[in-house]
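User:
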Amino acid sequence: FFETVVYQEAANITILDLGAGNGNDSIFLLNKGYSVYAVDFQDESITRIRSKIREDTKQNIKLIKSSFQNIEWQTLPKFDVIIAINSISFINEDDFNDLWSKIINQLKPNGVLITRLFGSNLSWPNMENMTLLDKSQVTKLTNGLEVIQNNEEFYEENGLTQHAYNLILKKNLK
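Assistant: Predicted structure:
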């Protein structure tokens, strides 16, 4: 998948995985030769990811325990790819808008953002302090970026409405 979006050798690509969770994406990419920064706020997630790192790849991953709101962006490099799948919607709208700006700023020119954002028709329990977006809000977020993919999902599962936007966005040269 990444080879279709990113047109460089893996060794030259630096990826930020926001909300790394169980680490499957980070470890997969690490084992493919990418340099990975994995961010998660839970100790268990960082420990789980650390346990999956192979000895021959450990120099190419940096684990960061932090909430999205407390990431020290100034200490990080610019990234070729930023991944945020089912993660950045779990903060309030003010923090989300600030985080979105920081994410876009942290992308290199021609960098790619791969994200899944929750839609406004989502019906889960305990949704307070989440950012749920409608189509016009998603369109506004993509202003100034090249939209490679914008796929809206809407379906029922286990009596709950699932609603999300799968986005692949490219920051054009500036």
